[in-house]
């Protein structure tokens, strides 16, 4: 893995632990010589993360739609800023550039990015590792919902296991580095169609 896409909030959140985690993740990426690929913003956890990577001498690629750039939220100090026409193109470009994905706390946008990249993996569009950094139990309710999807028969166990989860940056990267792409179960039970 050389390029890590990070999905995170355009807001900083209400607890300082989220900001601190973004800083620690940025420092870790730079120290490990991993390039950050992210949404290109200078606000919220996105800006904090990018600034942390850059302050540590790391490289950052931002991908931002033109309409958000016009709202003056684009980070001006990145190594590379890719401007897209749409949000869909933004996600596709981030996915192309990334060798792995991590989601830290965020809102609707982060969830959209996480679930789209998980769905693409489930459909075998890519085989890259997907990690969830469960900061301070932030994602516990979401993980419980995923388990409920399995219990209710809407999500195969093998597909639920596509998401690697830890509350530790180092442990999450260890899981991602040892990740072995597997052929997952088909996402639809065709016998019932």
Write the layout of secondary structure elements.
Layout: E1 3-7, H1 16-31, E2 35-38, H2 44-55, E3 60-65, H3 66-70, E4 80-84, H4 87-97, E5 100-103, H5 108-122, E6 130-133, H6 140-151, H7 157-160, E7 163-166, H8 169-177
Helix pairs in contact: 1-2
Brief overview, please?
This protein is α/β, with parallel strands linked by helices. It contains eight helices and seven strands.
Write down the overall mean pLDDT: 93
Helix-strand topology string: EHEHEHEHEHEHHEH
Low-confidence stretches: 187-193
**How would you write the strand order of the largest sheet?**
4-3-2-1-5-6-7
- Major pleated sheet: 7 strands, parallel
Report how far apart the termini are. 39 Å
* Cα Rg: 16 Å
**How many strands in all?**
7
The general outline is: globular
What is the structural class? alpha/beta
Instruction: Please count the helical segments.
Output: 8
User: Helical content, roughly?
Assistant: 40-55%
Beta-strand portion reads 15-25%
Features:
single chain, 193 residues, alpha/beta, seven-stranded parallel beta sheet, 8 helices, disordered C terminus
Task: Write structural notes for this entry.
By secondary structure, the protein is α/β, with parallel strands linked by helices. The protein has 8 helices and 7 strands, in the order E-H-E-H-E-H-E-H-E-H-E-H-H-E-H. A 7-stranded parallel β-sheet has the order 4-3-2-1-5-6-7, sandwiched between helices. Strand 3, helix 3 and strand 4 form a beta-alpha-beta unit. Helix 1 runs parallel beside helix 2.
């Amino acid at each position: 893995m050389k390029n890590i896409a990070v999905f995170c909030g355009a807001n900083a959140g209400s607890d300082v632990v989220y900001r601190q985690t973004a800083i620690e993740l940025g420092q870790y990426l730079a120290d490990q010589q991993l390039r950050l690929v992210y949404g290109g913003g200078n606000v919220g956890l996105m800006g904090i993360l990018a600034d942390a990577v850059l302050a540590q001498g790391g490289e950052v690629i931002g991908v931002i739609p033109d309409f958000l750039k016009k709202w003056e939220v684009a980070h001006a100090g990145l190594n590379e800023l890719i401007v897209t026409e749409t949000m869909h193109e933004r996600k596709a470009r981030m996915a192309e550039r990334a060798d792995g994905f991590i989601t830290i706390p965020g809102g609707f946008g982060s969830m959209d990015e996480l679930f789209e990249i998980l769905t693409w993996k489930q459909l075998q569009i890519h085989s890259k590792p997907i990690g969830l950094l469960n900061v301070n139990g932030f994602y516990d309710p979401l993980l419980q919902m995923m388990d409920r999807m399995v219990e209710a028969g809407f999500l195969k166990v093998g597909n639920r296991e596509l998401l690697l989860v830890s509350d530790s940056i180092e442990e999450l990267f260890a899981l991602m580095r040892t990740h072995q792409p597997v052929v997952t179960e088909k996402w639809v039970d065709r016998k019932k169609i």
